Amino acid sequence: MPLRTLLVIGCLTAVVQGDDSAPEEPEISADERAHWAYLPLAGNSAPAVANPAWCRSPIDRFLLADLERRGLSPAGEAEAATLLRRATFDLTGLPPTPDELAAYLNDPAADRYERAVDRLLASPAYAERWAQHWLDVARYADTDGFEFDAPRPNAWRYRDWVVGAVGADMPYAEFVRLQIAGDLIAPDDPAALIATGFLLCGPDMPDINLAEERRHTFLNDLTSTVGQAFIGLQMGCAACHDHKFDPISQHDFYRLRAYFEPCELFREQPAPSLTEQAAVAEFEQRRADRWKEIEREKSRLTADDAEAHADAIAALAQELDALKKSPAPAITMARSVRQQPRTEPARFYTRGDFRRPGPEVPPAPPRIAVPPSPDLETLPPADRVELADWFADPENRLASRVIANRLWQHHFGRGLNDTENDFGFMGGSPAQPELLDWLARELHRQGGSWKALHRLIMTSSAYRLSSRPDGADDDGWRRLVENDPDNRRLGRRGLRRLDAESLRDAMLAVAGRLNDERGGPGVRPPLPTEVAGTLLRDQWEVTPGAGQHDRRSLYLFVRRNLRFPLFEAFDRPDTNFSCPRRYESITAPQALALLNSEFTWECAAGAAQRIRRESLGAQSRDHIDFACRLILGRPANDDDVATLAGEPDLTVVCAALLNSSEFLYVD
User: Fold this and answer.
1) DSSP tally for the chain: helices H, then strands E
2) Element (H, E) at 11
3) Residue 16 contacts by C-beta under 8 Å, 6 or more apart in sequence?
């Protein structure tokens, strides 16, 4: 860990120059440092259990030991088809295909599930699914927000960078470092520059009257998001006053903000690829060579006979003028930051008012996030690389816990600490803190590989639990529910509703319409007439080409002031704020939107066509079985046949299944 980070302490309020009116910074008490999230990571091993045969991984030992202390036993294992559907949606955001289901159910090998997990982790769809989780935290959008909500033409390059980084299983340390300081770490790498788009994902008001106010507001918002995303601290309110509950002072806020003060924020930066760089270099060389040839030819003609060759000289002069004006080949531009020379010192702002600059502040992490150390009057120079290295350090207790918690969250519906952006006193506390610390250390032991931690979590016995009693141990199930109604001990599986993007993508997939083209600018599908009629001109220019409208939801244009209607109904988050976890409402408009929307019936018709084309049999039961495999991810049972066999229209059958709770929820 850098020396400077270790030396950050509570009295870093030394004033180099400026206003002396800044309030005195409160000291951090021993009780505050004793909060679970601020303690060093435990170096614990998995505990002993009474039933080791149940455990497939150390994860299971932590959870089983907790249950056994309470006299409880975990539920049984989920059925094979249920488990495949669960794993497929978790890792790809898509349903298993009928062929994948058949291959899995017919595979007699003992390791069929583990091989299915490996197949899903290797899928390009995995990168798209897990990129969306991070983009929620980053507040990614393709527009500025506020009144004019102006488009950001190159914002999508950051989205595609995240997809590429997740798909390549970029070590988490590098994933963090490039987003915080890619322009400094690898200044000649366009991908590293694009990665810093994370810092610019938030809303912006370019038309604000005062440039100073715009920059001040944006930097405050950026600092708040960095604190939430990487170390789970709610820094935002400390822009105006010391935090009321957590040991985060105003000085802490402006010291963290000081890292970003030299950033150029509001100008798109050139980020040419190697091919583009070569093309520009070739163009410049050809232009320089021709320029010299023209000058030599003019000199020769002038020396020979200026009058007799006047037209030729004029032609050469005209060519030279055109050559000077000829544009170089286009290069990639990115919404990203670049470091500027520091012309003004970073300052404390009294009450958060940009018109009231106070004393200078040195860049430093929040004091509560680092070990206490002796008082210092001065600190060595620091930049964003040092901050990035500190976030990525395996011994960074908050950063390590936060990312391990995020990875766990998206497999179980909530984190071990269920306030995923807030690890402070007003946040939650994990039911299994030892497991969280073990996962945090395990991620680093695995080289920062997300995929390694996915595999470890998903192949555990805990992940495979059923969400319902199997009849063999109804008393054990009843005791689980009575003693742990919120399922914090994870003795059973909880139901999870498909999020908005997975719902849309799954409907397109079963209809055979999903376009798996990847990357590029955001796509704008047609909007319902009642929505389109309320928009100003050019707010939603429909993308040409019907096939483009069926791209994965990740690639739809994200307008801050207008959520896609289906996403609006199904709780797509507000991109003005960092979203650690999607919340699930249950409302009548959701049911009405699915039942009555043109999109649902188009997908139902597409699914019906697939059934007629791909079903191996021609009888009603064959069609119903294929429909259940296609839409619900399991073979049909007798109740399905009894319920659906009387409906002759396959489109109606498919629409009914698309509206069923079994389709909307992952068991």
Assistant:
1) 28, 8
2) none
3) 345, 359, 360
Reported in sequence order, the residue ranges of 511-595 that DSSP labels E, i.e. its strands, are none
Q: What is the dihedral of CA 539, 540, 544, 546, to 10 degrees?
A: 180
C-alpha neighbours within 13 Å on the C-beta side of residue 348:
29
Q: Cα(350)–Cα(366) distance, rounded to whole angstroms?
A: 18
- Do residues 483 and 491 lie in contact, with contact meaning Cβ atoms separated by under 8 Å? no
Q: What is the mean pLDDT of the chain?
A: 92
Contact 292, 396 (CB under 8 A): no
Q: Give me the count of residues in the chain.
A: 667
Q: How far is CA 111 from CA 81, 116, 634, in A?
A: 15, 9, 20
pLDDT value of position 12: 41
DSSP state of 351: G
190-246 per-position pLDDT tens digit: 999 999 999 999 999 999 999 999 999 999 999 999 999 999 999 999 999 999 999
C-alpha pair distances (Å), 318 with each of 303, 305, 311:
19, 19, 11
To which residue do tokens 């488009």 refer?
151
What is residue 59's predicted lDDT score, i.e. its pLDDT? 98
CB 667 within 8 A of CB 85: yes
586-629: per-residue pLDDT in tens? 999 999 999 999 999 999 999 999 999 999 888 899 999 999 99
Q: Rounded to an integer, what distance in angstroms lies between the CA atom of residue 644 and that of residue 654? A: 10
pLDDT at 18: 44
The most distant pair of C-alpha atoms in the chain lies apart, rounded to whole Å, by 111
Domain locations along the chain: 3-34+171-265+340-393, 42-76+406-494, 78-122, 272-331, 500-666
- Which DSSP symbol is given to 269? E
CA pair distance 524, 545, nearest whole angstrom: 10
Other CB atoms within 10 Å distance of the CB of residue 130: 24
Q: Report the DSSP beta bridge partners of residue 596.
A: none
How would you classify the pairing of strands 665-666 and 496-497? antiparallel
| Residue 580 to residue 282: CA distance in whole angstroms | 47
Measured distance CA(386)–CA(383) in Å, rounded:
6
Q: What is the pTM of this model?
A: 0.92
